[in-house]
Amino acid sequence: MTRRSLIALLVAAAALAGGVAFWQLRAPAATAVQLQPAPLLRTLQFSARVAALSRVELGSTLTGRVVEVKVREGERVRPGERLLQLENDELRAALAQAQAGEQQAAARLAGLRSTGRSAAQAGVAQAESVLLAAQAELKRSQDLIAQGFLSPAKLDDAQRAVSVAQAQRDSARAQATAIGDQGSDVAQAQAQLALAQAATQSARARLAQTTVTAPAAAQVLDRLVEPGQIVQPGRALLALALDGPTELLAQVDERYLEQLQVGQGAAVLADAFPGQRFTARVRSIAPLVDAQRGAVEVRFAVDAPVPAFLREDMTLSVEVDTARRERALVLPIAALRSAADGSATVWRVRDGRVEAVTVRLGLRTLDAAEVLSGLSAGDVLLTGAAPPPGSRVRADVAPLATVTRRAKADDAGATLTNAMGR
Question: Which residues are in the CusB-like beta-barrel domain (predicted)?
Fold first, then answer.
């Protein structure tokens, strides 16, 4: 081997050794993100359904056959509008009979107060005249007996005639009193009239029950009966949604109850109309939690104007803004190494080495968190697999939005979703 060849070989070996040493000493690369202030929004997404403020099911209080159903699903009805009719021939006959009984009782009372009262007064007058005649006859008999023209036996007959006339007068007076305004006969006739009137009212009420009417302005949701069917009390015949504010009803996992407050705004979207997003607000939160489902009922009031395409029980997607920071130091959740009780540990890159830093967190979402203390804007944090603290590292800085989108995609099946920088 020549001297030139030997030198070339030694140079190549040195270069190879240097390359190996450089490769061994070269710092490993790790994905990182640089902290920057940004808006932070936490939202809660869940399904809801359209529900009328008041929904009623109409039925009948009688057993009968349906003669006519005058409305169909979707129709608007006015207060008192006739919706359904049951057969009522028998009840109409019962009402006519009760009305006839009422007329008969009224006629008897009127008779007592008119012709009956006149006849009684005439009877009193006649009885009093008979009594006066008997008393006069008694006086004349007493005078004749005193003069010796009549025997004393005639006096007994005259006295007996007076007694009979007095009894007849008292009887006539009693009869006249009975048919007076405060008399027993009139009171009895008045009671019979009241009983007949009550029977008429009862018959009229039962007849009215054969007609089902709208209790208020409403929309017909469901028609549950057809003409010819026999219905019984307690069975629903028609379902109505009474006019009033449109509400959205949702069952929300109780774990997120702390995040919800009355008055929070929400964006609502119907799957059937994806291009017509509208807004609503939390109207009320139920005071009780459904123990079986572990959910709480939340009601939303739809902001005006209410979309015309909304239908009762339509399923909607609701996204509620539960917290917002207009400007916060945003930390991606992917950068957290451990977290407990509002504090967390992250790995920060400083002077090419990894160091562990404890930070205090504020508002948290699924993919980001607000940093309250421990870090500053511009700090570089490792977000993926990286060497432990104290090791050399080469930070491969990625845009913050890319890291948060990746974390959100990993949690796509979660109920709680979030947005940063909206």
Answer: 250-322
Whose tokens are 């109850």? That residue is 257
- Scanning the structure block, which residue is given the tokens 């920088």? 421
Token pair of 401, please?
């939005």
Q: Is 141 exposed, middle or buried (0-12, 13-18, 19+ CB in 10 A)?
A: buried
Alpha helix locations (H) across 314-369?
Answer: none
Q: Quote the CA–CA distance of 375 and 360 in Å, as a whole number.
A: 9
How would residue 151 be classed by pLDDT, with cut points 50, 70 and 90?
Answer: low
* Interatomic CA distance for residues 142 and 161, integer angstroms: 14
Separation CA 409–CA 413 (nearest Å):
9
- Helix, strand, coil abundance in the chain, percent, nearest 5: 35, 40, 25
109 in helix, strand or coil? Answer: helix
Distance CA 144, CA 135 (A): 14
Rg (CA), the chain: 51
pLDDT, tens only, 279-305? 999 999 999 998 888 999 999 999 888
**What is the DSSP pairing of strand 394-398 with strand 29-34?**
parallel
Q: What is the DSSP string of 215-274?
A: SSSEEEEEE---TT-EE-TT-EEEEEEESS-EEEEEEEEGGGGGG--TT-EEEEEETTEE
Which of the two residues, 132 and 29, has the higher pLDDT score? 29
DSSP class of residue 392 equals B
Would you tell me how many other CB atoms lie within 10 Å of the CB of residue 241? Answer: 21
* Whole-Å CA distances, 315 to 247, 292, 311: 12, 22, 9
Q: Is 409 helix (H, G, I), strand (E, B) or coil?
A: helix
Q: How far apart are CA 107 and CA 204, in angstroms?
A: 21
Contact 268, 47 (CB under 8 A): no
Could you say which DSSP state residue 301 is in? Answer: E
**Whole-number Cα distances in Å, 120 to 5, 115, 187:** 164, 9, 16
Cross-strand bridge partners of residue 250: 48, 298
Distance in Å from the first CA to the final CA of the chain: 73
Which three-class secondary structure state does DSSP give residue 185?
Answer: helix
- Residue 159 reports pLDDT greater than 80: no
- For residue 120, what are its two tokens? 């009684």
Residue 319 banded pLDDT, cuts 50, 70, 90:
very high
CB 64 within 8 A of CB 210: yes
Mean pLDDT on 234-256:
87
Structure tokens at 201: 């009212």
